[in-house]
Amino acid sequence: KDPAKKGKCKPTPSAHLPIKASQEFPKKADSVLINWDEVHSTVRNMSYQNGKLFVMVSGLYYVYAKTCFRYYNHGDSIQASVDVSNTQLIQYVFHQSIRQNSNKPAVLMKTGSTMRWDNTSYNMYCAQQGRAIYLDKGDAVFVNVSNAWLLDKEAEGTYFGAIKMGN
To answer: How far apart are CA 20 and CA 158, in angstroms?
Structure first.
């Protein structure tokens, strides 16, 4: 054994990804995949690509996501014409298994609410969820949301991640 490597071990697989603030979302879209900020992310022994977090080491993981939605009518004509009085805000966390024969990902978690927001003032709603799941090497997890154009693009309010808890 190499004495220089004694006492050193690989870091626990983990990732924490804040929202990528520069993305734009259409106002009339169903569930939309969120992209995350690679520059300000922490990713260890996992990989990230095109909105998806990929597992490199099989094991039991805790997967979490928080998304905040925000609406403030500034009085401009674009937002003033959008009716947010009965808005459905849903967060989905998907699991794409390497073992599945189909490419259709499974819903791992879902949360949200139908908000009755006031069109004339500031409104905010946050959805947060997490759970443990066994993930195989090559599996992917990712987050979709409804009404993505309302996402709060601040890293402290909208983020996603995972950490390996055991084998």
So the answer is: 9
Q: Please state, in angstroms and rounded to a whole number, the distance separating the CA atoms of residues 124 and 22.
A: 20
Cβ neighbours of residue 149 under 8 Å, at least 6 residues apart? 24, 25, 26, 27, 29
pTM value?
Answer: 0.88
Radius of gyration for the alpha carbons in the chain, expressed in angstroms and rounded? 18
Alpha-carbon span 50 to 71, nearest angstrom: 26
Burial of 151: CB neighbours in 10 Å, binned 0-12, 13-18, 19+:
buried
Q: Which domains does the chain have, with CATH numbers?
A: 12-166 (2.60.120.40)
pLDDT digits (tens, 9 = 90+) for 105-143: 999 999 999 877 776 678 899 999 999 999 999 999 999
